[in-house]
Amino acid sequence: MNIFLVGFMGSGKSTVGKLLADKLKLKFIDIDEEIEKQEQKTIPQIFKEKGEPYFRNLEKQKIKEFKNKDGYVVSTGGGLGADEENMKIMKQNGIVVWLDVSLDEVLNRCKGDTNRPLLNQPLENLSNLYNQRKKVYSKANIHIKTDNKTPEQITDEIIEKCKSLQV
Q1: To the nearest whole percent, how much of the chain has pLDDT over 90?
Q2: Is 120 exposed, middle or buried (0-12, 13-18, 19+ CB in 10 A)?
């Protein structure tokens, strides 16, 4: 079984993913980190040099690799989980968990983070992107509201909800 964590930037996918993998004795993988290793560039560099469509294609390739893998907790980038095709692939290969964070909380958590290219836009555009992505995130198997919860509380909630999904 694999567990895929989706959600907007700053929702806690990497932090919670590491805790979850540790508690469940699964392997942890961060798709953004894997892409940076493969391309030998940071995500902002990839966006700048090759564009967002190139990056989104790399994400799609990485998520397809899980058709033959098992025993992973996967932290996805904010855009990966907002793609209909990626959502379908993840659901066929594991449980998808949406870490639902409010936009106010995103802005609070990501304040001063220069590693997130999509933050460099007007608030109205960011808000539209956030609302667009939520439509796809909402198709996840499990929905966890993360505002005002510690990573440990979120991890425990995921474990409980995963147990109830398993037959």
Answers
A1: 71
A2: exposed
Q: Give backbone dihedrals phi and psi of 3, rounded to 5 degrees, phi first.
A: -125, 120
- Interhelix angle 31-39/43-50, rounded to 10 degrees, is 60
Apex 74 CA angle, 72 and 77, nearest 5: 170
> In this structure, which topology does domain 3-165 adopt according to CATH?
Rossmann fold (3.40.50)
Residues 6+ apart with CB under 8 A from 115: 42, 43, 44
162, with CB counted inside 10 A (0-12, 13-18, 19+), is middle
Tell me the whole-structure pTM to 2 decimals.
Answer: 0.92
Q: In this predicted structure, what is the pLDDT of residue 143?
A: 96
- Domain boundaries of the chain, sorted by first residue: 3-165
